[in-house]
Amino acid sequence: THLAQHDALTNLPNRLLLRDRVDQAIGHARRDGRQVALLFLDLDNFKTINDSLGHAAGDELLQEVARRLRETLSDIDTVSRQGGDEFLVALADVDDLAVVSSLAGRMQRRLAQPFTLKGMQLVTSISIGIALFPGDGEDFDTLLRHADMAMYEAKSAGRNTIRFFDRRMQEMLVARTLLEDDLRQAILNEEFLLYYQPQLTRSGHISGVEALVRWKHAQRGIVSPAEFIPLAEECGLILPLGAWVLKTACQQLTQWAAYPELAGLSIAVNVSASQLHQKTFVSDVLRELKQTGANPRNLKLELTESMLVNDVDTITAQMTELKAVGVSFSLDDFGTGYSSLSYLKRLPFDQLKIDQCFVKNIFTDPNDAAIAKMVVALGISMGLNVIAEGVEYEEQREYLSGIGCDNYQGYLFSKPLPLTEFEAFFVKSNNL
Ligand code: C2E
Ligand code: CA
Ligand code: CA
Question: pTM of the full predicted structure?
Answer without folding.
Answer: 0.71
